[in-house]
């Protein structure tokens, strides 16, 4: 993780809904081939911050740099142009259409006649799903009929199919059993090796310590601090999440508990 | 080789445990819901036929039924897309009245002063003016719904009152007649039908298209190694499909012109009137228009980006937005389309009546919504088919004309139609719950 230009840099981001500052003056960065975990309580502002990067929300203040250049992201289409793909906590699947339609939603493959090329899309879907979830066979069914794990793999397939450079995973294992969770962990390591930068949002501290290069802790919309899993313990991070107390091994942020010196 | 293997795979494990009908449905990939609707339609037709002492299933009644269904069927194809995106359009009846009135005044009063009476371009100018007006009104309503965030129910409820009032204002309530001679062909009648020869041509073209579609589908599946339908199932679909098409043409071709019109036809040509002259109607032009609209709308819904987005928005509006779809623009386009379809329906209705009245299309919005819903469109959004809605329109019209044939009083007709609507949706709910399990 040398001092080269970060893949993404979010600087001094703020957003408020009504009078509530959901995200306040947050700065984070992400390098190629790095996994940065965002942790914190429900309502700490993790998902909101990430939705600003993926274009679902428009920030009130702050700048986003991609490869050191300022990026204009005001809707999800913009974010995708910068190679930012997102796996949402809610999965954001259209339940009434099949896996292929979801995978290519908004980026359909077309025939030379300008019509939908469903056959080609299904064929591509079969390929990518074969890699992620080899036992998956229900290509013709609406995704509402699929199991939680199958739906999750559709959402993941959608994010990785289009050569993402920056991947946002919001609770990617929330709906999964232990075996599928392990599969996702393997996938994260594999993507990391391919040089993709990953923002990982998770409640599971073990997962985070297992996968992340850096952990950013958020509380009440602010960054408490950033730590490397090797340099702090899981209890330290829990202390950051619950109390906002920054341990010696971590870099404190604006949200850190101010202690009497 | 591939063929055999994938056919075996498609019938896969557990095929032995399935009953013969289940295997049949699986092999032909027919939609059971659609079959159920066709079954219900058959029951209604046969029921009325028996009750009316053999009056219902006659070429004459079926031909009239097809013409009477056309207007509502056309609008129901647009209503499917509206409802699929979790919206509603209560204004289509009034829109039909207003646009019909404007088209009527254009061709009966405005253009004759400008171009002279009976100018050959009259009908097309009137129609284009109507289509433009319909699209503009649809765009206005769509804009308010999609970009200003007013619920569709409210916007179109307002439209229901506004456009009906506007229809009255055009002529202060006066009925406008007669319509241009060419324009009138869109309404059906002995002149507004394409005759036996061209009907057969249409039928044969439709059969060829059906077979080509099946062949193309099979080729595509083979190209990508997908499971194929067994050959017998493909043959079955082709045979039954063609038989239905040609059967419908035969019915349309066995409804003769009335003898008075036949006599005038021969006299106009200066020929002696033959004793047993038989000139068939053939397919009515409004029906042909409705079928064309159905084909185009099915294509739009299933084969284009626009259609895919419509269904995705209906399934999960938030997901569609996050996938980068411009959901507002899609919704606005749907309402523009609805406006144009209402215009086509208005042209057929005014042409059939040979007059534009300000009451034209009153309560049509309810028939159109009922047709779409009976046709399997879910008010919860995300589900619906164009063909289903069109069959729904025919079903509603069958009930209405069947009861008229039986001499049922109007109030009782309304009671029956209302009850059928509720029962149909209830049955659909039960069916969907069972399918889910």
From TrEMBL, chain A:
Domain named ABC transporter: residues: 8-245
Entry annotated with the keyword rRNA-binding: no
PROSITE patterns with a match to the protein in the record: ABC_TRANSPORTER_2
Keywords, alphabetical: ATP-binding, Nucleotide-binding, Repeat, Sugar transport, Transport
Keyword Nucleotide-binding: yes
Top-level lineage group: Bacteria
Cited Pfam families: ABC_tran
GO MF, any single term: ATP binding
PANTHER family (alphabetical): CARBOHYDRATE TRANSPORT ATP-BINDING PROTEIN MG119-RELATED, GALACTOFURANOSE TRANSPORTER ATP-BINDING PROTEIN YTFR
This protein's name: ATP-binding cassette domain-containing protein
Organism (species): Chelativorans salis
From TrEMBL, chain B:
Leader sequence segment: none
Pfam families in UniProt: BPD_transp_2 (PF02653)
Membrane topology: Multi-pass membrane protein
Record key words, sorted: Cell inner membrane, Cell membrane, Membrane, Sugar transport, Transmembrane, Transmembrane helix, Transport
TM regions (residue ranges): 35-57, 63-83, 90-108, 120-140, 152-172, 192-215, 236-257, 277-301, 334-353, 359-379, 412-431
Subcellular location: Cell membrane
InterPro entries registered for this protein in UniProt: ABC_transp_permease
Role noted for this protein: Part of the binding-protein-dependent transport system for D-xylose. Probably responsible for the translocation of the substrate across the membrane.
Annotated protein name in UniProt: Xylose transport system permease protein XylH
